[in-house]
Each structure stands twice: as structure tokens, then as C-alpha cells.
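Worked example 4.2. Below are the chains of a multi-component assembly; read each line carefully before continuing.
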Amino acid sequence: MGRSLCCDKVGIKKGPWTPEEDIVLVSYVQKHGPGNWRSVPVNTGLMRCSKSCRLRWTNYLRPGIKRGNFTPHEEGLIVHLQSMLGNKWAAIASYLPQRTDNDIKNYWNTHLKKKISKNQAEDVCHEPVLRYCNTDQIRNPDVSTPPMSNLSSTTYASSAENISRLLIGWTRSSGNQVVKVDQGSCHSVFNQGLPLQESSSEATFCGALTLPFHDDHENLRLEAEHQPLTVLENWLLDEAVAQADIPAGLCLDGMY
DNA sequence: AACTTGCGCAACCGCCAGTCG
DNA sequence: GCGACTGGCGGTTGCGCAAGT
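Applying the procedure described above to all three chains together yields the following C-alpha cells:
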């Protein structure tokens, strides 16, 4: 008889994560850093197993995750790496730091596998999709990051309206203040129990996200092109933008 | 309009390796 | 050395949604 799995324990919640759970997890990781996942459910009260918390963080909430369509370059890179490494998704993901191994695995299984088998059937003499000489070239391709506007913002498990209600309700019912910052073209920020940090150039909200203060929106858009956001970050940013009546597509500094 | 099918993807499952007492 | 435990990984499942009939 094997030992029971952590997720088999009574009272452990399964299924899609709610925005409140995400906020709790993000706040905790921001405060304590990723790792020691066993302590996360204990210290946060989340009714999730440690494994589920880790997975949610690494595959979804971790800062810098790029979502949405894969570029032709990324696609070629995955094909090339898969042919060299096999189904070592974590290893492949290390060459695409903005993508998770889960995303790459899903993309391979749903798109590339079919595409490749089709191509092989049609023409076995095709040129390789990409030819890289070494890992440095793979890690530093001369391909620009696609603009933020191309990224999907609809991948959250719940609707934006529900998230909005839940998060705002959670914020206020927790007794924390909603802070509005008036500075230049500035932003509303939510303070979720962790100290709101403000400086002359930026404000941090939810203890996790940092909005830079800017006078011109063009610069923000330019920065945004190089700062992919998690879906939660995108939503929080949208919320801040909606409240402050400034254009969408701003950038957030990474957590670390 | 109602139903079916296929797709995309978040999340789960089970195994393995590493660590620690 | 051994067992318990944790984190990481790859395979798989199941749900929601869009497209097709």
C-alpha cells in the first residue's frame, strides 16, 4: 500500500483556481519567495496541496510569462529543440524563458506534432525549420518580441467581470485601502495587505506589481512590448487603467 | 436554434531524483 | 544505508468554447 498523495487528503480543493486564491498565492510568494511549497497552504490558508500551488505559480502566475500565439521563431525553435532533445519540455522551456514547459508541451501536442507529421507526409525533403549552431544563438535570436496587443487576455478561468467583483470585494473586505495615486498620467493602485511602495517613478500594488509613472503613454507602450505579463498582472493592470482612465498596454516591472 | 465535434489549455496524476534526519 | 518527504517533470485528462452541421 503506497503512501497517500498530498492531493488525496480530505478537504483539499481541486479544479480551477479562483482570483482570490491567485491573489493570496501571489502575495505570499512575493513576500516569501518561491519555494518551500509545503508551507504555502499552511501559512496562507489555501485549501490546495503544495503541488497545486507550485504548479499554479510556475505555469500561470510567475512574472514574465508570455501568453498568446507562438511566433514563427518560437515555433521553429521548439521544433528544432524537440528534434534534438526529445520531449524534454523543461529543457526546451529553458531556451524560451517567457514560455512555460506546460505551454510548450500543449503547443507541441496540439499544433506542431500534427503540422510536422503532415509536412513529413507531404515532403520528406523539406529544409529544417531552423538551423542554429549553438545555444548562444538560440538564446539570443535577432527577432523582436511581439507587441503586447498581440497577447491573449482571455485565458483566465473566469470572466473579467467576475474577477473584478471578486478581487475588489476581497480587497475591501480585507480592510485594506484602495489607494489612488495622482501623479502625472498616473494610476490607481490596489493595496492588498502588503505595503504600498511609492517613489517618484513607480508604485507597487498587491505587493506584486509595479507601475511606472510616466508622462507620455508612447514610452509606456514601448516598454510594454518588452515586458510580458501574466494574465493576473494583465487583469490588475486593466483594472488600474480603467480606474485611472489611461490607455491600456502599460508595462509592469517584474517581481524580482 | 439545437446539437455535435474538435480544439485549446489549465490542471491533475504518477513517477523519479534529490535531500534530510 | 534507509525511509520519509519534497520538488520537478512528462503524460494525460476534462472542461469550456467555437466552429460546423
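Take a moment to check your reading of the output against the notes. Residues 101-122 of chain A form the longest helix (22 residues). Residues 65 and 192 of chain A are 22 Å apart (CA to CA).
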